[in-house]
Specification:
It is built from 5 helices and 53 strands. The chain is mainly β. A hairpin with a 4-residue loop joins strand 33 (about 500-520) and strand 34. The longest helix has 26 residues, at about 1-25.
């Protein structure tokens, strides 16, 4: 019976299995894969897949609808942990550092699932052992990059559904620089390669991609990469707090390169001139080499300003800029007694030519001209430091070189010099300068020249000038004076007794004038009358000179074991002789009111001066000195002693005139300079010492000062200038690879306009100009440094004093101390100031206090001039990015001039 039981059990299991197999066969979905065309072989599923190996999939299976798939190329994929193919689900699973490449599409993520029937791919993040998300998807198609939390992409339709996407778009390059716009969205629908639709998006230029300190929230938007974002209702959020700043719709350009567009003006209130719109205008790119920005300012009291700026550059050819500013200033209101109206202007042109553009010719321009009161009366706040400048200078020149022997250099220059205090303007229109290279007629062109004969050489140069001296309001070409000068210098040099250098020579000049002046005494007017004589006239003059000099070295050794090992003194004495005859043949005479004969020359007042009536026969002496010490270096690893300059230069000079009937000895002139404290402090000084005494009227008399009860030499003038610069790095050890930052760029505008290249006169406080500068944003939160040890700071001092005692006045003609400095109280807090004190007039100079706070994407600044003629304050807070620079608020005080 037992075998029968086993037989019945076998029959039961067989029948049950048969029915079960039939039931399962009804639910099986047949894979539409042709065995002959499928490259995925069964052994691939049996063998282990190596980590980081790239697999190629050429799935040609038909989808359920029977249509052929649209995949045109192979799909390359790989993963770190595993790549699993599920024929049942018709999907490929990739886990940990998964990557897929197809045509111009690149996808990287922690987890990727590829549906090779639908030709869709799914990508998502991974969780680490701590529960944090890692390996966020990275999707790139062409030049467009997206970093979402998860993504679903179809290879056939090229459409995608992206969750929590993050992308960075370059937002243009123009006069104000370039920025990147970060675009976030909770849900993004990729319609095609060029159109995305966003839901609940954020737009910001903040570099913090996780928690931006500000953003513009858009509910719905159309996003075209590298072109634009068109949004519906949008409003500004700061630290996730909504603000009242909102728009029903918005347009954000995301362009590469330059494009024309409006510049939004600054709105504010000036207590002197009312409400205003400032710096509003239009930007126009001109080809690939230039652009133009035209802006205007309007005030409710009738004042207005116009400004045009153009920057141009062509690589290896030239670069430059042109700025024009015009302002119409209205004070008070019509009908009031203090009403006034005036206009001011300023023109700046800068042009430089690349040396490679034309080796034998060059054109350059540096122009700064306009109304003398422009910087002091301008409506623009950035002109505050320039109120302390008293000169405007310009120069435009073209030069040409003909290199064939003998080479000839020619230049054509127009120059301008304007004193803003006196309004005196000096203009040359133009100046022609031509010169021929030095020729040695008694020596070969190549080789060493020896002796006095072979070293004889001569040159030729000519100068033609048309000069105008006038005022800004009375400019006229009728006041022009023309003149020319031709000069031929001849010289030679040779050695005497091996150690003495001797040079001898002379110079011949021929002076031309197109207008001379004749003098006569008018008995009816009882005055000397000067008549202008039109027409060409000329005179010539010449002189002879000789000099002998040598160099003397002296070293005082104290021993290598001493702190000061040696002191070296270098002296260069020189003795010169000059002779100029009297040119009395160019002088005429007239009788004055007393019947006395007065001599004059008709060339007095001409452009190149007049010939001398007095003969000059003089001997001059000069002594140049330098003094330096050799000290033991504090660095124990140094192999040589360190050289320290004690006196960079110390010069003494005087002269003796043989032809003078009295006061033959010239005053002794002394000047020198040095740098101390590791060259942080520079000192320059000069003085005048007179051996002759003066009478009760302050006039020099032919009596030695020591014979008049005084000292051997009488101090008549003295001047000293001291500059000192120190910072927090001065007392610290500098690293070998530490690079000093060049902060000159902050003062480029001021220096170009004729001001100082530092902040001793203050910094410009129109923050609109700052947007063109590169902003280095501190993207990471840093801890405050240890107080008192690592706080960055800097200090600059400038001391100047001038003493006058030529007529026993014994006074300081000028005496002032100026200082400026900055200190970073924390990595994002910076305060600074600049001021000075005039000891002669007993008052402070232009004083400015500055406060700056770095708010990551924002900047906050407050500049305050607490007293003086330019008392004012200026407050600004705004976004650093030039793209959204109009999201700002600024306010200023009344201009108390």
């Amino acid at each position: 019976m037992q075998p029968n039981k086993h037989c019945l059990l076998f029959i039961f299991l067989f029948v049950a299995g048969l029915f079960s197999g039939v039931a399962q066969e009804d639910n099986i979905v047949v894979l539409p894969i042709k065995a002959t065309n499928d490259s995925i072989m069964a052994p691939l599923l049996l063998k282990s897949i190596e980590n980081d190996s790239v697999q190629s999939d050429t799935i040609l299976a038909k989808p359920k609808n029977g249509k052929e798939p649209l995949l045109l190329e192979k799909i390359n994929y790989k993963a770190k942990d595993y790549v699993r193919l599920s024929q049942k689900e018709q999907k490929i699973y990739l886990y940990n550092e998964a990557e897929i490449y197809y045509q111009d599409t690149e996808l990287k993520a922690g987890v990727i699932v590829l549906d090779y029937i639908k030709n869709e791919v799914y990508a998502g993040r991974m969780k680490d052992s701590l529960g944090n998300y890692t390996q966020l998807p990275y999707f790139k198609q062409g030049d467009n990059e997206v970093r979402p939390d998860s993504i679903r992409f179809n290879f056939d339709t090229q459409k995608a559904l992206i969750f929590n996407s993050r992308t960075e778009q370059q937002a243009g390059v123009g006069q104000l620089g370039s920025d990147n716009m970060n675009v976030y969205a909770e849900i993004t629908k990729k319609e095609n390669d060029s159109v995305y639709f966003l839901s609940e998006g954020k737009l910001t230029t903040s570099q913090d991609t996780i928690n931006p300190d500000y953003y513009i929230r858009v509910r719905k938007a159309k996003f075209v990469p590298k072109k634009k974002v068109i949004a519906g209702l949008s409003n500004l959020y700061i630290a996730d707090v909504p603000t009242p700043i909102a728009l029903p719709f918005a347009y954000f350009p995301l362009f590469n390169g330059r494009t024309a567009g409006l510049q939004i003006p600054t709105f504010g209130n000036d207590p002197t001139r009312g409400y205003f719109l400032q710096n509003g205008g239009y930007y126009i790119p001109i080809g690939d080499v230039a652009d133009l920005l035209v802006t205007a300012d309007f005030y409710t009291n009738g004042s207005y300003g116009l400004k045009g700026q153009s920057i141009y550059a062509k690589r290896y050819r030239y670069r430059g800029n042109v700025n024009f500013r015009y302002e119409n200033l209205v004070t008070s209101q019509k009908g009031f007694s203090d009403y006034s109206s005036s206009s001011i202007y300023n023109i700046q042109i800068s042009h430089s030519q690349d040396a490679k553009a034309s080796p034998n010719s060059r054109f350059s321009a540096s122009v700064n001209l306009g109304s003398s009161s422009y910087y002091k009366s301008s409506l623009l706040q950035q002109n505050l430091p320039l109120t302390q400048s008293n000169s405007l200078n310009s120069s435009i020149s073209y030069s040409k070189t003909f290199p064939e022997y003998p080479s000839v250099n020619m230049s054509l220059t127009a120059s301008h010099s304007q004193n803003t205090n006196t309004d005196v303007v000096n203009i040359t229109l133009p100046t022609f300068q031509g010169s021929m290279e030095r020729i040695f007629p008694f020596a070969k062109r190549e080789g060493i020249k020896k002796g006095a004969i072979q070293n004889i050489n001569f040159q030729y140069d000519a100068n033609y000038r048309n000069s105008i001296t006038t005022t800004g309001e009375e400019f006229s070409f009728d006041d022009a004076i023309m003149g020319a000068r031709h000069r031929i210098p001849i010289s030679t040099n040779f050695k005497v007794a091996k150690f003495f250098s001797v040079s001898m020579g002379g110079s011949y000049e021929d002076i031309w004038a197109w207008e001379t002046y004749n003098k006569r005494y008018d008995e009816e007017a009882t005055a000397v009358v000067t008549d202008t004589v039109a027409g060409f006239d000329r005179f010539n003059k010449y002189n002879l000179s000789a000099s002998i000099g040598t160099t003397v070295y002296g070293t005082f050794n104290f021993g290598e074991d001493k702190k000061i090992q040696a002191i070296r003194h270098v002296a260069r004495p020189s003795l010169s002789y000059g002779y100029t005859p009297s040119f009395e043949q160019f002088y005429d005479e007239y009788l004055d009111a007393n019947g006395e004969v007065q001599q004059f020359t008709k060339f007095t007042g001409t452009l190149n001066g007049a010939p001398s009536l007095n003969k000059s026969n003089s001997l001059s002496f000069s002594l140049a000195n330098t003094l330096e010490a050799k000290v033991t270096d504090k660095d124990s690893t140094a192999t040589e002693a360190k050289k320290v300059p004690l006196l960079s230069n110390f010069n003494i000079s005087t002269g003796y005139n043989f032809e003078s009937d009295s006061l033959k000895l010239s005053p002794l002139s002394v000047n020198g300079g040095t740098s101390i404290l590791d060259r942080k402090m520079s000192i320059n000084f000069s003085a005048g010492l007179d051996p002759y005494a003066i009478d009760n009227n302050g006039r020099r008399i032919n009596v030695w000062n020591k014979d008049n009860g005084g000292s051997l030499l009488r101090l008549t003038r003295a001047n000293i200038n001291v500059g000192y610069s120190i910072d927090s790095k001065t007392f610290g050890r500098k690293k070998d690879d530490e690079e000093e930052e060049d902060e000159l760029g902050e003062y480029d505008y001021v220096a170009q306009s004729g001001g100082r290249d530092d902040d001793l006169f203050g910094k410009a406080d129109d923050f609109y100009e700052d947007r063109g500068r590169e902003v280095k944003e501190k993207t990471e939160d840093v801890e405050n440094p240890i107080y008192g040890t690592k706080i960055p700071w800097d200090l600059r001092l400038a001391y100047s004093a001038s003493y006058s005692n030529s007529a026993r006045q014994n006074e300081f003609s000028s005496h002032s101390l100026m200082f400026s400095g900055d200190i970073e109280l924390s990595p994002r807090w910076k305060v600074g100031g600049s001021s000075g004190y005039d000891f002669k007039n007993m008052g402070f100079t232009l004083t400015q206090l500055r406060f700056e706070r770095d708010l990551k994407s924002f900047t906050l600044r407050f500049n305050w001039t607490p007293f003086g003629n330019y008392e004012r304050w200026f407050f600004f807070i705004g976004i650093k990015s030039s793209l959204l620079s109009d999201l700002k608020w600024e306010n200023r005080s009344r201009n108390s001039r």
